[in-house]
């Protein structure tokens, strides 16, 4: 039985999806992700890159509104996932863009504003990965270049069942790139 007890946290996270845990709704960015976001902005600023955070925590309602864009609502499709299926809904993801002179915001993977011969966008991604984020640009099925997330090893299914990374949790250095 000692063997089983040692594995209880893992086993509990593997129960069927309909076994929900009653947990308070997430309403903000996870504290570790929030701290890493600030670090990302500061470290990028140090190398002459102004990072603009365009999105962080997103409620289920906000996610559903985004999902309707390009489907029942006008516009282009901006997301592949409905409310509750995005790491943004659990405060574990941020989206970024680049700030340029004149207050412009750029979604340009080639822009080299600090003139060091390297893409500013990819420089930010490198710093983000060093901080423990995984990057949506590495996803194979739907590349999401502005997207950075820190899932702490929790799948969307586990989060939907009410499992939450604790507030005090160490950021993981290497993460699987193919979680949404
Ligand atoms: Zn995102």
UniProtKB/TrEMBL annotation:
Q: What GO terms are given for molecular function? A: peptidase activity
- Specify the superkingdom: Bacteria
Q: Extract the InterPro entries matched here.
A: DD-CPase-like (IPR052179), Peptidase_M15C (IPR039561), Zn_M74/Hedgehog-like (IPR009045)
Protein name (record): M15 family peptidase
* Source organism (scientific name): Cohnella luojiensis
Q: Where is the Peptidase M15C domain?
A: 84-150
One Pfam family recorded for the sequence: Peptidase_M15_4
